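Structure (tokenized):
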């Protein structure tokens, strides 16, 4: 790829490239195109957009489509562009993804789709993909797993979900463990009622290992109403006879009682 050159190009000569991997107009911080337009009006365009030649005196936007749309909305006539030469659509997608990842405002769903697509273009070679976009193989594996979830799951990555949204970690577990489960959509809805990923992982583990095939809602309810606080770990001590003296039972000591018992023993 040749060194990019920066030029001011009329908006009428620009269009969005089909290889631009950003599909969602709202950033992860909730910033809309209108918000971005207001910022550009006040502070100017801080970073040029990235384009490639698409025909005679025509260009397509590989990275920076939100800035492009904001400038169009403001009624500007031209915009500063990095003009680059790329050899293939795959290279264009890699450039688009790399720039958007560096900006760190790309929504999860766009990342999942883009990484899943690039993984296929890299012949399912995760190490090759890792070298191209500087993500660890472990992180990439989570996104690749999540890309296998069915279409209906996409809505649960939306930040507007009232009951919470899927994290990439939970999405990866769902794709690995529950892809063939007919209850998948119900499982997603139910686990998002739980307050955090720690409890969601616990729920998924119980659902996966539930030999009694309990109702998913019952399992979620049990976890959500669990009275055991994580910091109050239960310790098991020697076995003692029950009140009738017929059976032996383990002596259970709550953690908050351990210091008191320790003091009694050491006296």
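Design, position by position:
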């Amino acid at each position: 790829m040749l060194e990019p050159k920066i030029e001011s190009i009329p908006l009428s000569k620009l269009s969005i490239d089909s290889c631009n991997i950003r599909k969602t107009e709202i950033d992860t911080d909730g910033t809309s195109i209108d918000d971005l337009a207001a910022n550009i009006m006040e502070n100017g365009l801080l970073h040029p957009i990235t384009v490639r030649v698409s025909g005679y005196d025509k260009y397509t936007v590989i990275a920076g489509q939100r800035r492009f749309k904001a400038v169009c909305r403001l009624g500007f006539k031209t915009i500063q562009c990095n003009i680059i030469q790329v050899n293939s659509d795959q290279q264009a997608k890699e450039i688009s993804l790399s720039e958007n990842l560096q900006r760190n405002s790309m929504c999860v769903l766009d990342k999942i789709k883009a990484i899943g697509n690039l993984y296929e273009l890299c012949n399912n070679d995760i190490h090759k993909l890792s070298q191209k976009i500087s993500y660890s193989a472990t992180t990439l594996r989570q996104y690749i797993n999540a890309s296998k979830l069915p279409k209906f799951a996409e809505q649960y990555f939306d930040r507007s979900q009232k009951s919470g949204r899927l994290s990439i970690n939970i999405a990866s577990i769902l794709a690995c463990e529950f892809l063939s489960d007919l209850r998948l959509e119900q499982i997603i809805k139910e686990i998002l009622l739980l307050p955090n990923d720690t409890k969601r992982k616990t729920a998924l583990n119980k659902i996966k290992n539930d030999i009694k095939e309990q109702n998913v809602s019952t399992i979620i309810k049990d976890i959500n109403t669990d009275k055991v606080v994580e910091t109050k770990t239960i310790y098991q001590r020697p076995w003692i006879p029950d009140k009738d003296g017929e059976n032996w039972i383990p002596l259970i000591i709550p953690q908050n009682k351990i210091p008191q018992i320790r003091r009694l023993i050491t006296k």
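Reviewer-requested clarification: The chain is about 45% helix and 15% strand. The radius of gyration is 27 Å.
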